[in-house]
């Protein structure tokens, strides 16, 4: 078990994190820029000190200011892959990978395993972003660390190679026996690489769960936007949720009290005339904007309740910005849960 | 207003008319030259001190000197050879060498023969400067083989090395002994060469009369007495 | 380039080039061989002293530069100013300071004399010390700038790979700072080679032992100015060659 209860001041804001991880899961830390994701990794690696709290890995106390315990980075079994890899520019690829291990043959084994055998004698300046990232991974893995930390592993990889690098990364993360924590701002990357997602916002963990949990039960506007869901926060009474601005949305539940609700944009239907049938949520709205993407068109509708509808390109042809439309959402599509 | 202008003109004229003559003095007689300049009484004198050989170089390169006082015959005759003098150089003072040692003479040095002791740290003036030339002549004539630790750029730095305790003994001018925080060991007149100081007015002087008057002043009884105070002989 | 800048740059260049050109005019080319043959001792002493002094300055200046670049302690600004002091001090003041401390009757020099029977003034070691004293700040200054330019993130990565402070310095920081260190070595060496005032004051002047080329030039100027010009030419040519070669090495 890895537990990190850490409090630290950094760059003018306070990081206050409770994080646990097991060896049978890959954890992704996501959050907006400046949320403290990289700071968290630096604390785990021992590069920055913890002011209060404790870091314990497999029963070993790595850091505990109250007991004056602080293992230096070189005394921790970590593999740290910083943003953009940060290879040592004056060393060859093999020398980079061999830096942390006793035998150069070990380096060759790992480079072969990551498909980099042709680059053994190359200089870091000759590598692409993706190659550098994989070399940095090999450099960390060669020490078989108890804790593997990756900071934005795909950010410096160009789009053309991203899928291939992600595939290798995914395999390596899967095959690594220790704790694995990666940081990313990209939910797709998190979903592709990790089993569990920890949302960090303004130095605090705001949500912690699987990607499915996050998608169906977002607990903040940030997460809702991240997973592309409509998100509401209000007071429920018998399943009917009243929003702070007076809007009302009806769910199929019988929830009472402080409540959150999510609606998938594809569950929002738009009509030119008042729909027939029995949807519980129907109102006349106003099209504020229309944003086409590759597969769908996202239509932002204001009205009794502001939300986003996802319609097909064919369906969207009937609407234009500024039009009035009828909005309908089935109560069964409104997922309500306690706040 | 007119009076103000007039006085300004007078001041400027006076300034121009009272330009000092410049006397280039050998470094071994810096203090004496200053006193001679202030006792001259026939116009302002400024003293510029440098090693004798450097004075010659300055004259050769056209420095605006009016009178030169050098510390040996070699530099005086070099000036003659350069044909820059208004008159032949005259000898106006003499000096002799002495051994400078730490106060109390801890190594009990009694003469130049003692300087051959290899355990002593002895510094001499470099043979390129007059004091060094005299020293070399003297040691050779006396048949004393001294192994110097350093050949210093001037007789003043020889004195300084003894004064600072870095050297056990150094050969300087007699006139130097009284100036430093050192003790002197006499070198008999029969052994020490005589260092002759030469004075000459330069042909390029803008004030030839004053320059000549200063040279003449150096052999007056008043000047002699003053030089004697600093340890120079006539 | 704006005309007025060009004019000023031209005047600046002239200020530097004209004296060197004047030197070339006065060099007695026909007697050059003889003058140089007579100065073998001074050339030898100069090479020995400047190389040893550079070694000392690098050996001590690099750790000092590391301390200044990475340390964070009270009095750091004062320490830096102290390190740089010999750059602005007249060399003769450096010599006097060395005499006052490491001379035979100085507190430390006296102690060394009592303990080991070694005195530094008037010895080649003294000349090396004087040259080291003036070369050290140049090495330190340039090396510190080099260390400051090293990416600290790389050292952090090295730490997570198990490298302790010494290994991080040896394997990461030092190689990154090599161009700056090379520049520091050349500047320090050039300063040591040209050293005059501190050497003549502290180490004295004795042919074959403490008389370096600059001292030989100074004394030759009194005896035989032509020979002084010849020796000056040697210093100018050697310095120019080394500075050009070094510049090429560290720009690449």
Structural features, described:
The complex is a heterotrimer of chains A (about 350), B (about 230) and C (about 250). Chain A has about 350 residues and is of the alpha+beta class. Helix content of chain A is about 25%, strand content about 35%. Chain A has 2 domains: about 1-215, P-loop containing nucleotide triphosphate hydrolases (Rossmann fold, 3-Layer(aba) Sandwich), CATH 3.40.50; about 230-339, Beta Barrel (OB fold (Dihydrolipoamide Acetyltransferase, E2P)), CATH 2.40.50.100. In chain B, the strands form 2 sheets. In chain B, strands 2-1-3-10-4 form a 5-stranded mixed β-sheet. In chain B, strands 7-6-8-5-9 form a 5-stranded mixed β-sheet. In chain B, β6 (about 120-125), α5 (about 130-140) and β7 form a beta-alpha-beta unit. Chain C is mainly alpha-helical. Chain C has helices at about 5-25, 30-35, 40-70, 75-90, 90-100, 105-115, 125-150, 150-160, 165-175, 180-195, 195-200, 215-225, 225-250. Chain C starts with a helix and ends with a helix. The model of chain C has no long low-confidence stretch (mean pLDDT about 90). The interface between B and C is medium-sized, with 22 and 22 residues.
Short description:
The complex is a heterotrimer of chains A (339), B (234) and C (252). Chain A has 339 residues and is an alpha+beta fold.
Q: How are the elements arranged and paired?
A:
The complex is a heterotrimer of chains A (339), B (234) and C (252).
Chain A: E1 2-10, E2 13-21, E3 26-30, H1 37-45, E4 52-57, E5 60-64, E6 69-70, E7 78-81, H2 93-98, H3 104-113, H4 129-141, E8 147-151, H5 159-175, E9 179-184, H6 187-193, E10 196-201, E11 204-209, H7 211-216, H8 221-227, E12 230-237, E13 240-242, E14 248-250, E15 257-263, E16 269-271, E17 281-292, E18 297-302, E19 307-311, H9 313-316, E20 324-329, E21 335-338
Chain B: H1 2-17, E1 21-26, H2 30-39, E2 45-50, H3 52-60, E3 67-70, H4 73-82, E4 90-95, E5 97-101, E6 122-125, H5 130-142, E7 150-152, H6 155-163, E8 169-173, H7 174-177, E9 183-186, E10 195-201, H8 208-217, H9 221-229
Helix pairs in contact in B: 3-4
Chain C: H1 3-26, H2 32-37, H3 40-70, H4 76-88, H5 91-102, H6 107-116, H7 124-148, H8 152-160, H9 165-176, H10 178-194, H11 197-202, H12 213-223, H13 225-251
């Amino acid at each position: 078990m890895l537990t990190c209860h850490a409090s630290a001041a950094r760059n003018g804001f306070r990081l206050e994190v409770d994080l646990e991880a097991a060896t049978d899961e890959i954890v992704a830390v996501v959050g907006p820029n400046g949320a403290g994701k990289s700071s968290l990794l630096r604390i785990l690696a021992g590069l920055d000190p913890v002011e209060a709290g404790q870091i314990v890995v497999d029963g070993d106390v790595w850091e505990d200011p109250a007991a004056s315990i602080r293992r230096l980075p070189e005394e921790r079994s970590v593999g740290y892959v910083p943003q953009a890899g940060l290879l040592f520019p004056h060393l060859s690829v093999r020398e980079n990978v061999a830096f942390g291990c006793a035998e150069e043959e070990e380096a060759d084994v790992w480079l072969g395993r990551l498909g980099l055998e042709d680059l053994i004698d190359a200089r870091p300046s000759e590598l692409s972003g993706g190659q550098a990232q994989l070399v940095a991974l090999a450099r960390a893995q060669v020490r078989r660390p108890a804790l593997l930390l990756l900071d934005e592993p795909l950010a410096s990889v160009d789009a053309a190679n991203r899928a291939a690098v992600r595939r290798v990364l995914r395999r390596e993360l899967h095959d690594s026996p220790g704790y694995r924590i990666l940081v990313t701002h990209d939910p797709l990357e998190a979903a592709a690489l990790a089993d569990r997602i920890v949302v960090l916002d303004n130095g605090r963990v705001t949500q912690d769960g699987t990607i499915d949990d996050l998608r169906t039960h977002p607990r903040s506007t940030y997460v809702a936007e991240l997973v592309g869901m409509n998100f509401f926060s209000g007071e429920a009474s018998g399943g009917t949720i009243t929003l702070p601005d007076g809007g009302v949305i009806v769910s199929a539940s019988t929830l009472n009290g402080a409540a959150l609700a999510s609606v998938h944009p594809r569950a929002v239907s738009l009509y030119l005339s008042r729909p027939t049938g029995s949807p519980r949520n129907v109102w006349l709205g106003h099209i504020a904007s229309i944003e086409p993407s590759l597969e769908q068109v996202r239509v932002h509708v204001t009205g009794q309740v502001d939300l986003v509808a996802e319609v097909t390109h064919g369906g969207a042809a009937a609407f234009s910005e500024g039009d009035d439309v009828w909005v309908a959402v089935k109560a069964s599509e409104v997922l309500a849960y306690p706040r | 207003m007119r009076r103000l202008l007039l006085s300004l003109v007078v001041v400027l004229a006076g300034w121009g008319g009272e330009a000092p003559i410049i006397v280039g003095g050998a470094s071994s007689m810096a203090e004496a030259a200053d006193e001679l300049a202030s006792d001259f009484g026939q116009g302002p004198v400024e003293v510029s001190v440098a090693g004798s050989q450097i004075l010659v170089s300055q004259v050769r390169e056209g420095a605006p000197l009016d009178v030169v006082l050098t510390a040996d015959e070699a530099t005086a005759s070099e000036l003659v050879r350069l044909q820059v003098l208004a008159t032949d150089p005259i000898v106006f003072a003499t000096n002799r060498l002495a051994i400078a040692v730490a106060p109390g003479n801890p190594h009990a040095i009694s003469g130049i023969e003692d300087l051959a002791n290899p355990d002593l740290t002895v510094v001499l003036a470099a043979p390129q400067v007059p004091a060094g030339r005299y020293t070399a002549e003297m040691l050779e004539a006396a048949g004393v083989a001294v192994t110097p630790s350093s050949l210093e750029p001037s007789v003043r730095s020889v004195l300084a090395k003894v004064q600072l305790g870095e050297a056990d003994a150094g050969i300087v001018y007699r006139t130097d002994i009284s100036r430093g925080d050192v003790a002197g060991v006499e070198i008999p007149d029969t052994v020490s060469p005589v260092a002759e100081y030469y004075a000459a007015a330069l042909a390029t002087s803008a004030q030839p009369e004053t320059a000549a008057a200063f040279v003449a002043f150096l052999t007056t009884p008043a000047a002699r007495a003053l030089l004697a105070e600093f340890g120079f002989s006539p | 380039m704006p005309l007025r800048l060009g004019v000023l740059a031209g005047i600046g260049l002239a200020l530097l080039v004209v004296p060197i050109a004047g030197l070339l005019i006065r060099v007695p080319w026909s007697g050059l061989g003889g003058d140089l043959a007579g100065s073998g001792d001074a050339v030898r002493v100069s090479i020995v002293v400047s190389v040893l002094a550079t070694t000392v300055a690098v050996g001590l200046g690099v750790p000092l530069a590391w301390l200044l670049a990475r340390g964070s302690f009270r009095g750091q600004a004062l320490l830096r100013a102290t390190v740089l002091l010999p750059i602005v001090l007249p060399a003769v003041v450096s010599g006097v300071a060395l005499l006052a401390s490491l001379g035979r009757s100085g507190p430390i020099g006296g102690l060394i004399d009592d303990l080991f029977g070694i005195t530094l003034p008037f010895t080649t070691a003294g000349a090396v010390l004087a040259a080291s004293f003036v070369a050290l700040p140049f090495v330190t200054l340039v090396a510190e700038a080099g260390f400051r330019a090293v990416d600290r993130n790389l050292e952090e990565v090295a730490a997570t790979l198990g490298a302790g402070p010494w290994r991080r310095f040896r394997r990461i920081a030092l190689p990154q700072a090599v161009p700056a260190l090379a520049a520091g070595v050349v500047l320090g060496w050039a300063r040591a080679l040209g050293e005059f005032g501190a050497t003549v004051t502290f180490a004295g002047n004795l042919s074959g032992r403490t008389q370096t080329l600059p001292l030989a030039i100074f004394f030759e100027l009194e005896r035989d100015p032509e020979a002084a010009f010849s020796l000056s030419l040697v210093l100018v040519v050697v310095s120019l060659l080394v500075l050009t070669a070094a510049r090429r090495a560290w720009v690449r």
